């Protein structure tokens, strides 16, 4: 496994990236291999520099575009493209982003993963009133971090209509790893229908998009493999709960065309390289509803960043990326062409691109993995760790680094007197961390798949205090009525924000009482995921919580104000899985 | 788009029937400033018109057009629900009946169950004098363990006659689109209502098997068989009119919703 932590001299790309005059950027823009229009579907936004400020102009509009080469559609675009153009901010400088709304409805931009004053966070109704039609809003904030992030609308269902793009912050200090070339890889899901119709279908017809429901023949297959009594018992257990083990993603490939940098599998986004180069892929899941599994057959990947934050390099063959997460990987391609393959978690579809030495090449596109179903662990009923590898008998090893248990492993939890009421169709009986479990769908996979417990922060983080306080929240839902909430209460049913103390050290505990994975995003502060790697926790803005799982994160709220906290599955958020955290 | 307009029109009509439920929307969340809009609008109302049975029944002596459906409008907890079921003779005679047209308020009492209460209307027409009656209806509908769709009700007519009704459905998926629906329906009358051909006790049992193909979720043609038998006093009232108490018919129809 390669582990490039040594500092290195500036490469040609570093010089390009740090070019500080507009002339330099424009002059060399067409030479940049990564973001040439047509090649990548990713355009880099030019910036203007004034003193210590980097100034960007963005215009949000509807622009006719062809998606998947099939139909002309009217997505919401930023400066005319989907995804929105790539924005490169620079650490240590002030970002000034002037956003003009040419839509006939209010809009917004949220800078996903950037810590900034709350007024600049871009959530209508929480941090500001939104950007009215015809108005220009100026975002202005100091940039005090680096890494791969993204930006998107936080208004209504606009994200589903194309309003998202990559955001990269170039570091002040050289990166602790080497690469010769880089690409942003924006994964997303596109529907040719009105997103409000998608929402309605989910609301009025349970399982509308699920064409992988259990059939009579699945039952007889179970009989053949498990015997009558076990098959009967399994069907009975799910039947009693009125749950289906096949409910993996709410909106599937039956509705979505999956995109890579705005291009469908047939469009075949292509990233060029020269053999022997190290290529950095900045993979961003900008989907509304789709969790992806990403791999490059024949090529190992070294993960160097998660959610824009450095981790100890870890080599893997595949990783699952929750909605709104980002992973930076470094690859060293040697052959002429490779397929960059991203299949949806439920195996109902995929997108792909090609990494090649010249345009127009393709590599074999793998089959989708076989469709699968959830097991006992999803109900929070099984032993912690579906592979049975975790011993949760002892707590005393938690201070000694890798392989130890997170502090919540043996925590007793309560679902309240009424099990969260009508908004929650189930509760996890015995939830625990399953950080060494890659999740549903990898049962037949023999190669390495990244898990959260393999993520180790490259550094200890500044606040080394033990948490003084714990906040426990349950992720709850009712598929039958498509209700999603925290602690059984939709956003419209709660009385006020969740109070966080300014500067306090707290432990956030998330318990997933549903049958689905939820990517939970906290604005305005980092969540240091407690993996048991004490002191070297990976720092994340979005945590993908598996069904029946309980995980915890340490938090120091460093910025006062109101912050959104929600499930990043767009229609779950829309259904009420949203809270405001108030830091005072 | 036309479908959408029809739907909105239908929902608007429904909405006008009982405007009160709209005012039952939940309280507001904690937006930072009172004049700002909410960050998410999770209390949007939806509606649906679902015709579970919309079919032609080919019987031994008579052919019948029959329907059974539900329209609803509202949110997760509070809903306005209209249930209707009935049939009309197409050949072998004329006449028919609206077995139910119930307008009810529905309240989500738990994750899978909804309580309903409201007013119902029933009528029979031709041959002979048309008869109708109104009733008060209460009941539950929901999803029972093992995936049984259940709809139960207690109906008390304006004359004080009471009937308990039960209906259950179960779907077997042969493929993702080929689905066999089994259904069973029965009722128990606490008193005899001669004009409606209802005797005291268990009236009868109706069983159905319908195999549908979901061309789309919203549109699924089906074929099937329906078997009905009557018991006790009800059967005797039917025999007194010279009709068979046991009826088997082949059915063809479309399950549709929008």
From TrEMBL, chain A:
This is Copper resistance system multicopper oxidase. It holds the Pfam family Cu-oxidase_2. Signal peptide: none annotated. Keywords: Copper, Metal-binding, Oxidoreductase. GO terms for molecular function: copper ion binding; oxidoreductase activity. One of its GO terms (cellular component) is periplasmic space. Residues 61-173, 235-348, 465-583 form the Plastocyanin-like domain. CDD domains: CuRO_1_CopA, CuRO_2_CopA, CuRO_3_CopA. SUPFAM superfamilies: Cupredoxins (SSF49503). InterPro entries: Cu-oxidase-like_N, Cu-oxidase_2nd, Cu-oxidase_C, Cu-oxidase_fam, Cu-R_CopA, Cu_oxidase_CS, Cu_oxidase_Cu_BS, Cupredoxin. NCBIfam families: copper_res_A. It comes from Vreelandella halophila. The keyword Oxidoreductase applies.
């Amino acid at each position: 496994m390669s582990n490039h932590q040594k500092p290195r001299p500036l490469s040609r790309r570093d010089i390009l990236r740090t070019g500080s005059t507009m002339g330099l950027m424009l002059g060399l823009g067409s030479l940049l291999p990564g973001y040439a229009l047509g090649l990548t579907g990713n355009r880099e936004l030019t910036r203007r520099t004034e003193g210590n400020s980097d100034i960007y102009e963005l215009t949000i509009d509807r622009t006719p575009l062809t998606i998947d080469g099939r139909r002309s559609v009217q997505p919401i675009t930023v400066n005319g493209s989907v995804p929105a153009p790539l924005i490169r901010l620079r650490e240590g400088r002030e970002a000034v982003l002037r956003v003009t709304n040419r839509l006939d409805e209010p809009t917004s931009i949220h800078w996903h993963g950037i810590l900034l004053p709350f007024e600049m966070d871009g959530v209508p109704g929480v941090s500001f009133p939104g950007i009215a039609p015809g108005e220009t809003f100026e975002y202005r904030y100091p940039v005090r971090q680096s890494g791969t992030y993204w930006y998107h609308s936080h208004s209504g269902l606009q994200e589903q209509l194309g309003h998202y793009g990559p955001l990269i912050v170039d570091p002040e200090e050289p990166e602790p790893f080497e690469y010769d070339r880089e690409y942003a890889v924006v994964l997303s899901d596109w529907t040719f229908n009105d997103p409000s119709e998608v929402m309605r279908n989910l609301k009025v017809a349970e399982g509308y998009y699920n064409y992988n429901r259990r059939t009579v023949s699945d039952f007889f297959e179970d009989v053949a493999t498990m015997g009558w009594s076990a098959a009967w018992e399994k069907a009975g257990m799910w039947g009693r709960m009125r749950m289906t083990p096949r409910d993996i993603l709410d909106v599937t490939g039956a509705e979505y065309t999956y995109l890579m940098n705005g291009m469908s599998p047939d469009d075949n986004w292509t990233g060029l390289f020269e053999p022997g180069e190290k290529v950095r892929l900045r993979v961003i899941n900008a989907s509304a509803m789709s969790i992806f599994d990403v791999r490059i057959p024949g090529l190992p990947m070294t993960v160097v960043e998660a959610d824009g934050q450095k981790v100890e390099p870890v080599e893997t063959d595949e990783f699952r990326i929750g909605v709104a997460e980002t992973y930076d990987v470094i690859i060293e391609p040697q052959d002429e062409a490779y397929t960059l393959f991203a299949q949806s978690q439920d195996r109902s579809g995929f997108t792909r691109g090609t990494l090649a030495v010249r345009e127009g090449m393709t590599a074999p596109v793998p089959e989708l993995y076989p469709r699968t179903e959830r097991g006992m662990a999803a109900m929070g009923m099984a032993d912690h760790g579906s592979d049975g590898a975790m011993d949760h008998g002892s707590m005393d090893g938690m201070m000694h680094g890798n392989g130890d248990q997170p502090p919540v492993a043996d925590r007793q939890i309560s679902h309240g007197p009424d099990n969260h009421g009508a908004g929650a169709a189930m509760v996890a009986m015995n939830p625990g961390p399953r950080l060494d479990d890659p999740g549903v769908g990898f049962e037949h996979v023999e190669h390495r798949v990244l898990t959260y417990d393999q993520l180790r922060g490259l550094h200890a983080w500044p606040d080394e205090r033990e948490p003084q306080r714990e906040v426990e929240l349950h992720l709850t839902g009712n598929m039958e009525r498509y209700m999603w909430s925290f602690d059984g209460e939709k956003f419209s049913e709660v009385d006020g924000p969740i109070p966080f103390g300014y500067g306090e050290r707290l432990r956030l505990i998330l318990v997933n009482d549903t049958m689905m994975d939820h990517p939970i995003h906290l604005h305005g502060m980092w969540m240091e995921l407690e993996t048991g790697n004490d002191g070297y926790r990976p720092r994340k803005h979005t945590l993908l919580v598996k069904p029946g799982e309980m995980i915890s994160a340490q938090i120091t709220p460093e910025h006062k104000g109101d912050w959104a906290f929600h499930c990043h599955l767009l229609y779950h958020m829309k259904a009420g899985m949203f809270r405001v955290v108030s830091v005072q | 788009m036309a479908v959408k307009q029809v739907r909105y029109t239908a929902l608007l009509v429904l909405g006008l029937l009982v405007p009160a439920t709209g005012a039952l929307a939940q309280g507001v969340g904690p937006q930072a400033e009172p004049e700002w809009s909410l960050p998410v609008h999770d209390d949007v109302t939806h509606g649906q018109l679902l015709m579970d049975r919309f079919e032609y029944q080919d019987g031994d002596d008579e052919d019948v057009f029959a329907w059974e459906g539900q329209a609803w409008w509202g949110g997760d907890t509070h809903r306005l629900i209209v249930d209707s079921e009935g049939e009309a003779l197409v050949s072998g005679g004329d006449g028919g009946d609206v077995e139910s047209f119930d307008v009810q308020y529905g309240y989500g009492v738990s994750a899978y169950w909804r309580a309903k209460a409201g007013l119902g209307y029933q009528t029979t027409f031709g041959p002979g004098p048309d008869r109708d009656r109104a009733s008060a209806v209460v009941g539950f509908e929901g999803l029972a363990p093992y995936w049984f769709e259940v709809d139960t009700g207690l109906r008390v007519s304006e004359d004080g006659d009471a009937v308990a009704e039960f209906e259950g459905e179960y779907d077997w998926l042969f493929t993702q689109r080929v689905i066999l629906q089994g259904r069973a329906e029965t009722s128990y009358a606490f008193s005899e209502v001669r004009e409606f051909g209802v005797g005291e006790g268990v009236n009868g049992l109706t069983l159905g098997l319908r195999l549908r193909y979901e061309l789309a979720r919203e549109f699924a043609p089906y074929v099937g068989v329906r078997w009905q038998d009557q018991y006790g006093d009800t059967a005797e009232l039917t025999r007194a009119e010279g009709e068979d108490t046991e009826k088997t018919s082949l059915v063809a129809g479309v399950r549709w919703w929008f």
